[in-house]
């Protein structure tokens, strides 16, 4: 995604998020927008077809989700601005804003082998203590790490893998 599109998606998401006065409303607004995005994924070709007018697309949205509600208004705004293609990015940005409201930090954890539930919980607890926020982690396996783990949280990368340690050791030995 181009950086200008990311900036635009962030602006639209902030405007949508500001319609919510508290965390419960923000959670509900996010869930409604996400459900709309999933539902509209089946009509993606229609919604992105340049031969179909904006008015027809807006009528379709109102028929699906009703008129004069935040989701319909948001989608109509994207359509009118010819920026419907940003919908998925907007949903992601709204989720990010909701996480910020709730003090949640998303993390992507890669390990050399599959972790059991207890180990996953220990990793999440350790990351929560490290960041001071509630961490919600997704876990993946990357066998070339050899051991340890790699964590990505927003702009932070923690590489505690054996692969990285061996690389560092090799660099030290070659000096």
What is the H/E string?
Answer: HHHHHHEHEEEH
The CATH class of the largest domain is: Mainly Alpha
Subunit organisation of the chains? single chain
The main pleated sheet reads as: 4 strands, mixed
Fraction of residues in helix? 55-70%
What's the layout of helices and strands?
Blueprint: H1 3-17, H2 23-41, H3 44-47, H4 54-65, H5 70-80, H6 87-102, E1 104-111, H7 117-131, E2 134-141, E3 148-153, E4 156-161, H8 162-174
Parallel strand pairs: 1-2
Antiparallel strand pairs: 1-3, 3-4
Descriptive report:
The protein has 175 residues and is of the alpha+beta class. It folds into two domains: 98 residues, Peroxidase, domain 1, CATH 1.10.520; 71 residues, no CATH class. The protein contains eight helices and four strands. A four-stranded mixed sheet has the order 2-1-3-4. The radius of gyration is 21 Å and the shape is elongated.
Please name the defining characteristics of this protein.
4-stranded mixed sheet; alpha+beta; 16% strand; 175 residues; 8 helices; Peroxidase, domain 1; elongated
Give a quick precis of the structure.
With 175 residues, the protein is of the alpha+beta class.
């Amino acid at each position: 995604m181009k950086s200008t599109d990311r900036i635009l998606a962030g602006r639209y998401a902030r405007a949508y998020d500001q319609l919510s006065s508290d965390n419960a409303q923000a959670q509900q607004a996010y869930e409604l927008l996400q459900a709309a995005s999933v539902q509209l994924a089946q009509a993606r070709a229609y919604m992105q077809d340049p031969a179909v007018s904006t008015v027809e697309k807006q009528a379709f949205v109102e028929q699906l989700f009703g008129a004069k509600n935040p989701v319909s208004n948001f989608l109509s705004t994207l359509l009118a601005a010819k920026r419907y293609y940003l919908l998925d990015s907007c949903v992601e940005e709204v989720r990010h804003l909701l996480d910020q409201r709730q003090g949640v930090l998303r993390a992507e954890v890669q390990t050399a082998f599959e972790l059991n539930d207890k180990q996953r919980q220990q990793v999440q607890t350790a990351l929560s203590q490290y960041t001071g926020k509630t961490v919600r982690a997704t876990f993946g396996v990357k066998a070339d790490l050899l051991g340890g783990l790699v964590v990505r949280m927003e702009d932070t990368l923690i590489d505690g893998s054996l692969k990285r340690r061996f690389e560092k050791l090799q660099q030290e030995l070659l000096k």
